[in-house]
Backbone:
């Protein structure tokens, strides 16, 4: 009988409690960001991140706590997971632009500023029309 191997999982530590195991895939959307598909990519990634309970990290609604706060370690682990999801969903030529950003919110903001311009142009056109 072959020994069953448990899937790898991420360990998230809740303050003052034992570690809890979460199985979180690296890829949350099959769409990879290119220079031309920001609208569909951002919508798909928002859905994927929301389905994992982490949307507040990219909206800025869950900023980093103080490094002395007991929640710091948990926040860093969860934000790092969101960063992995973002990095794994952008094309190789875009990755260097965000790899060194300190938070997932910073990554998201940079990508929105760089590639979301078409969205603003479209809205302006729709309003003028």
Residues:
């Amino acid at each position: 009988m072959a020994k069953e191997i448990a899937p790898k999982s991420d360990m998230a530590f809740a303050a003052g409690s034992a570690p809890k195991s979460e199985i979180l895939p690296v890829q949350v959307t099959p769409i990879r960001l290119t220079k031309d598909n920001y609208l569909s990519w951002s919508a798909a990634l928002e859905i994927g991140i929301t389905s994992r309970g982490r949307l507040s990290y990219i909206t800025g609604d869950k900023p980093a706590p103080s490094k002395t706060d007991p929640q710091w370690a948990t926040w860093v682990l969860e934000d790092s997971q969101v960063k992995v999801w973002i990095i794994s969903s952008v094309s190789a030529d875009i990755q260097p632009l965000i790899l060194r950003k300190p938070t997932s919110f910073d990554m998201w903001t940079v990508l929105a500023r760089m590639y979301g311009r078409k969205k603003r142009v479209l809205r302006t056109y729709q309003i003028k029309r």
Observations:
- The chain is about 45% helix and 5% strand.
